[in-house]
Amino acid sequence: MRFNDESFIYRIMGIDNGSSSLGMVIMDLNLRTGRYSYVYSETFEAERLLHRHKGIVPTHGARWARQNTLRDSLTVSLKYYNPHSVAVETPFFMPRRVQSFETLTEMMIFIRQAVECHNPSSDIHRVTPGEAKRAVQPKNFTMKKAVIKDCVLSLECIDFPDDVDPTSLTEHEYDAIAVTIAHGERVRKETGYVR
Questions:
Q1: How far is Cα 34 from Cα 30, in angstroms, rounded to an integer?
Q2: C-alpha to C-alpha distance for 81 and 116, rounded to whole angstroms
Q3: 8 SS3 class
Q4: Low-confidence ranges of the chain (pLDDT < 70)
Q5: What pLDDT is stored for residue 1 in this prediction?
Q6: 193 DSSP 8-state letter
Q7: Under DSSP, is residue 19 helix (H, G, I), strand (E, B) or coil?
Q8: Which helix (H) or strand (E) holds 136?
Q9: Helix (H) or strand (E) holding 108
């Protein structure tokens, strides 16, 4: 991978995949220093936005309508923030929640559609839940979801603007930040900024 932007700023959209609540964050990574600047985050709640696709609920079902609604919200954000890359947390299989895995896998298709609509030559970068969690809590690693917020808030490499309260984000947005950092560190290694 070669990065030619002379500013050394690499914009990443990180996504916490979800079929009813989808977390999204935009962060600028300084490839030379490894510092992340928070730009924006949002949790898209499909039920709250469902009116956009209410007409297809009777014919295609509520799940299909929710997925289309989330895709459309991502498409708007991609167009507005124009990231260099999009990183998404991959679905993970849990035997007791097979339908959840199926729905998240379907949602990956809708996320890919949004990215292709924004930039046909682009792709999504997959980050496993383990990679995302390790990126923000390299010591005493645990898969517990509750610690992600504390880990993100303790990172010294993230700069938040003065008008943003870092403690007020949703759990989906903290997960999206973890996905962003996992992908960002991978990019820094691939471009030679970290050896």
A1: 5
A2: 15
A3: coil
A4: 1-6, 50-61, 92-101, 141-146, 195
A5: 44
A6: S
A7: coil
A8: helix 129-136
A9: helix 98-118
Domain definitions of the chain by residue range: 9-189
Query: Which residue has 């303790």 as its token pair?
Result: 154
pTM over 0.85: yes
Q: What is the pLDDT of residues 78-107, one digit of tens each?
A: 999 999 999 999 986 555 554 566 777 888
100-to-94, 107, 126, 127 alpha-carbon distances in Å: 8, 10, 18, 18
What is the spatial distance between Cα 190 and Cα 43, in angstroms, rounded to a whole number? 30
CA distance 61 to 188: 42
What is the DSSP track for 28-79?
EEETTT--EEEEEEEEEEHHHHGGGGGGGHHHH-HHHHHHHHHHHHHHHHHH
Name the nearest CA neighbour of 9 among 85, 80, 114, 77. 85
Going by C-alpha positions, the residue among 24, 56, 16, 17 that lies closest to residue 40 is: 24
CATH number 3.30.420.10 is the correct assignment for the domain at 9-189: yes
pLDDT at res. 44: 94
